[in-house]
Amino acid sequence: MLEVKNLSVAYGKHIALNDISLDVSVGEIVVILGANGAGKSTMLRSVAGICEGSVSGGFFLDGKSLNHLNTDQLVEEGIALVPEGRGIFGDLTVKENLSLGAYSNRARGQENENLERVFSLFPKLLERQNQVARTMSGGEQQMVAIGRAIMSSPKILMLDEPSLGLSPILCAELFSNLSAIKTLGMGVLLVEQNAKQSLSIADRGYLLENSQIVHQASAENLLRDKKVQEAYLGANKGSGQEKSEPVETDKGVLAAPNKIIPSGLTPRRSADQQIGSSIDAIVNLASEISSNSTKGHSAVTFNAASQLASSKLATIDREIELAAERARSAVRKNSKPVVGRGDQSAQPSLESPRVIEVYRRPRVDVYKRKSPGQFERQ
């Protein structure tokens, strides 16, 4: 079991972590949830011995203190970290990357066994073991990074944002593989922004906010927690009503439909609302008229339909003309645009006329080397 007790980390005067404690047992997945900047990655880097800040607190693995151990010594004890950004060797092949994970004395005797475990978890790596790592997709590179950590025979595997930058399909595949890792006899400490999928495979979880752990519970309870749903799972606050979509007004200002629109603004109506019908309906009507006319339908039906379509289009023309007239009137009076049809109450604006700023290309001086240490302007 990995135990972290009273861990505090500071970068100068900035407190990144303040007296946090947690534990991870072999055979379970524990997830750390928190917003960006909460201190999640700092916590993992502290346990792995690569934190650049001032670290205080205690680290214990199976009751043995890990304090004051170097990073390579922590790997020998059974701590492995898959960092954010993967950190693989891009110019080496997949198999060469995996072999480097077995460099420690702890893992050398189990290299072949661990390699088989990695290939069973990630069959794609078996197919592409001779491929250069940098030519692989982001999801495949993440598999290489996780596989390399497994090659070190860790007791505790720590992963920092493993799904970062991956497509939803690759994320689902990745989390399915992570749920199988704990069956290999190791504990998993997972830092992840994808709260829903990480909680779906985790056994327990911690909430990290403002450098402190504010809550811990089983993953199942965290998934049902309303505050967790609102903060991390995208649930709506309040009574569960759907989020109201903003309404665009005639001046480009957005307002929620369940709120009063400020005075002087009117909701911008769609074309369908302008004519009191559907544009699609008019198009379909025209198509129907065309097809019916070829079949010999009566001229009366054709004329009635044509008149209906013409009246709708005429309404659109009137709306366009009214809008143009209001704009012309506003320009002549040097005032703000008149709001509402036929509104004559608008007063001329006392504001100064609008100034159109013209972009001017900046001047760039180009120099050519004439002799060492000397340049000549072109």
In short:
The chain is an alpha/beta fold.
Helix content: 25-40%
Biggest β-sheet: count, sense, barrel? 6 strands, mixed
Give the overall silhouette. elongated
Rg measurement, Å: 33 Å
In whole angstroms, the N-to-C terminal distance is 70 Å
Q: Number of DSSP helices?
A: 14
How is the secondary structure organized here?
Blueprint: E1 2-11, E2 14-24, E3 29-33, H1 40-48, E4 54-61, E5 64-65, H2 71-77, E6 79-82, H3 94-101, H4 105-108, H5 111-121, H6 123-127, H7 138-150, E7 156-160, H8 168-181, E8 187-191, H9 195-201, E9 204-209, E10 212-218, H10 219-224, H11 226-232, E11 247-248, E12 254-255, H12 271-275, H13 279-294, H14 299-333, E13 367-371, E14 374-377
Parallel strand pairs: 3-8, 3-9, 6-7, 7-8
Antiparallel strand pairs: 1-2, 1-4, 4-5, 9-10, 11-12, 13-14
Helix pairs in contact: 3-7, 13-14
Structural notes for this entry:
A hairpin with a 2-residue loop joins strand 9 and strand 10. About 13% of the residues have low confidence. The N and C termini lie far apart (70 Å). The chain has 378 residues and is an alpha/beta fold. Helices cover 39% and strands 20% of the residues. The longest helix is centred in the C-terminal third of the chain and has 35 residues. The protein has a 6-stranded mixed sheet, with helices on both faces. Strands 2-1-4-5 form a 4-stranded antiparallel sheet, with helices on one face. A two-stranded antiparallel ribbon has the order 11-12. It is built from 14 helices and 14 strands. It has 2 domains: 231 residues, P-loop containing nucleotide triphosphate hydrolases (Rossmann fold, 3-Layer(aba) Sandwich); 57 residues.
